[in-house]
Amino acid sequence: MRNFDQQFMRHALARARRAPLTVVAPNPRVGAVVVKNGKIIGGGYHAKFGGPHAEAVALSRCKVSPRGATLYVTLEPCCHWGKTPPCTEAIFRAGIKKVIYAIEDPHPFMKGKGMKILRQKGIKVEILSPLERGGRGADGVCVHEAKRLNESFFYFHKKKLPFVAVKVATSLDGRIATRRGDSKWITSEAARKYAREKIRSEYQAILAGVNTILRDDPCLCIRKKGVTDPVRIIFDSALQTPLRAKVLRDERVILCVSNKVESYKIKKFERKGVKIWKFTGRRIPIQPLLRRLAREGINSVLVEGGGEVIGSFMDAKAINKVYWFHAPIIIGGREAIPSVGGTGAAKLLQAIHLKRVEHTQIDRDMLTIGYI
Fold first, then answer.
1. 188 and 57 in one domain?
2. Are residues 363 and 219 part of one domain?
3. Which of 18, 92, 113, 273 could be a cystine partner for 251, CB 3.0 to 4.6 Å?
4. Which residues are catalytic?
5. Is there a single domain that holds both residue 120 and residue 227?
6. From the annotation, which residues make up the binding site for substrate?
7. pLDDT digit string (tens) for 281-324?
8. Are 364 and 327 in contact (CB under 8 A)?
């Protein structure tokens, strides 16, 4: 791939990043630019679920005719009818001469079919590969950026399960609250804003336990204009969530309860439009929950606590990514609330080791991001 190709693909990636995942999910984020005579004449991105795709937006915004131009797009153009027409048809009608895209679409309706149709129509097609030059060149960088941009989308279509991340905010000694339950606030306002607006907007659903709801009454929202809040999932075996809890502000809520909960309790929540999912046993089983979420089309979940809920996901080996905020404070005390409950590791060799670790300082706090 030539240097100018890399440059234009980066422009397409930058446009794709403008869309919060909660707005486009379960679709991926996609960006595109149209280039003619070495200049960008149009660009766009998929801005919301059900709206026009990036390719169609880019073509519609061209300042001059796109006939004979090259289209750079971060994901293979679609070739099937859904909520919008096939992008392959729009590309053909616009007279595009060449299409360069970063990575193949893993959706079962796609997997190279878009490339095949474009070539049948006489359009030149290039797809970048992370294997080119050993994955170390700029081509590989663009591919990995494109894949990471939609890591939950790719994981979902490969594993048929949601991509699960956990977000934890602790003191240096790993506590999320004092022995009396005081937790507001361990991290700085800047760190909390980053978690709320940046991290939450990367996930289709956000999950917490009922103790967090009872203790903090969080909204589990993003609070950013034009950005859709994630679906809220609450682990509440005994159905203790107050009817006036902030998480119940609309119908985008799933309460996971024991099948032993009395029906009269359930009906109160159902009248508010809240979904009630029943599970066998005192604790909500992680894998059956994830399979059901997958059937509902939810491809990513951010687990925010408390410690026992996070521990249950770790014990189930169901976590893919970790966001861990460390504040420069020490709480101390045997009875202070730990960040991770559950059974945990018996030996250090069984402990969870993060890969591809990154560290970022936000105000006075340190954010560690890694994969499992």
1. no
2. yes
3. 273
4. 55
5. no
6. 183, 200, 220, 223, 304
7. 889 999 999 999 999 999 999 999 889 999 999 999 999 999 99
8. yes
